[in-house]
Model the fold of this input.
Amino acid sequence: MRLLTGKPGWSTSADVIVIGSGVAGLTTALNLRSYGLSVLLVTKARIDEGSTKWAQGGIAAALGPGDTPDQHKKDTLAAGAGLCDIKAVDVLVSEGPEAVRKLIAQGAVFDKSETGEIALTREGGHLRNRILHAGGDATGAEVSRALLAAVRGDTGIEIIEHALAIDALKSISGEVCGVTLHVIGAGSRDGVGRALAKAVVVATGGLGQVYSQTTNPAVSTGDGVALALRAGAKVADVEFVQFHPTVLWRDLANRGQQPLISEAVRGEGAVLLNNKNEQFMVGKHPQADLAPRDVVAIEIFNQMQISGQPYVWLDATNISDFTNRFPTIYASCIANGIDPTKERIPVAPASHYASGGVLVDLDGQSSVPGLYICGESACTGAHGANRLASNSLLEGLVFGARIAAKLAKELPKQGEPVEAGNSVLLDPKILLPLQISMSEGAGVLRSQTSLKKTRQTLQELSKLTSTEPRIEAWEASNLHLLATAIVKSALTRTESRGSHRRSDYPQSSDQWLSRIVQQVDADGNWKSDVEAIK
Ligand code: FAD
Ligand code: SIN
Done:
């Protein structure tokens, strides 16, 4: 299967193609260069676009006095609600501190305490202060700045901006040997082209745009996960879409990216209140307001249902240096008419992070030879049913380095692409009804009835095909494929676990200590397996 495109009008090549310029793509590209491999880095908008630059809270790593990777592991496993792959968690927490030190050596500057040590804060699910942050609440912008400076300084990395990867190219023996791209460029590289490589690394980030309200930027349309599915790769854990509990509530009419109020604000003392001014998280979990994200999100959702009010309150007026500690959040609150130093902030959950994605091994290798996945697009198993706060930037750093090391050891031979089979394309006008239906039926709380209704809508929307290849149509088609995968898995998992909550199955069940793995064949038929956790 592939998306409908025009005929490729140009071609290029490199040892490895990296798709995406967030923390995962940039880290992979830099590490590939350290082994002398040539890299083509393609990214669908400006190079600094993506979730990475929006990251607020920070990066988790066991760097503080008395902290250990083992304690970080315990918190990661607890948040993951029984579905983490222990080996992947071990890799994340044990290689994490070194990966962060390397990032600092590459030029990233983190905030310091009064004594000159790196300042560490706390977020939901962490039993220790282990979150490094930069610019107060602008960690992602600093990580992105430092990595981009290093990438731009390396002439062995060719960068093509405004280059949207559409589909994988495969050889007769089924290995991925390149991608089709659409470039909005000038000169010889404009329109649809082909880039060949010995391996392709997908680092296209998340799929937050599958819902009406999200913290994710507009580029987060799950393109790489959809590309991998169409190439025959397995995806796993896709029902576990994490909803961030505290997103600034403005109006349901506001769709797309919404301003985040970092969990670190609660880490510094802010508390959640319901419309009766009660601190409703107290007694609900031993960590109260700093319980793992799924627990807080569902409690907020319950409070909203009780009160009929589409938000709860976050009271941060007790944080004395709010403007310095959280300058980005302060600015976005003020821009929305709220002074968080004087008044409570209305907040509600919104889609935030895909804990699942393309199933990979500990070296980022997918089930399709030649196709590697890094960052939020991947399912390494490190997050299980719910990612621990600030483990995502870390995952990009750790697994980006591992993918490069693996490719340096075992770079496949360049394959010759063969023509792919059937093509599909949906009309971009499906986007709004798709997002509304996903938010209503497959959001924070789901049930068989709500999921089936959404499935029905998705089936109807799949009839709205298009014959006009363009960016909006490719993105809408990708979101439709991923929405279908999410709904299928969510219907299959008849229990509540992590960020997948079912009103008709409110409890977790030991029978479900397994992962739902899905694949699509060349005719568009889905295959679903339930695999035991390793
Ligand atoms: P991204 O950074 O999203 O990069 C994806 C890249 O792929 C982009 O360059 C995009 O343009 C490109 N792309 C997408 N599709 C295509 C295509 N078809 N062709 C070519 N290029 C494509 N995590 C933490 O650990 N700590 C935090 O404090 C934190 N705060 C967050 C705050 C916000 C508001 C958000 C949205 C997320 C936050 N996260 C945080 C999550 C974290 O930022 C992301 O999971 C992480 O940055 C993902 O990195 P990535 O490289 O996988 O993807
Ligand atoms: C936040 O700052 O609350 C987001 C952190 C994360 O997604 O890990």
Observations:
- The chain has a mean pLDDT of 96.
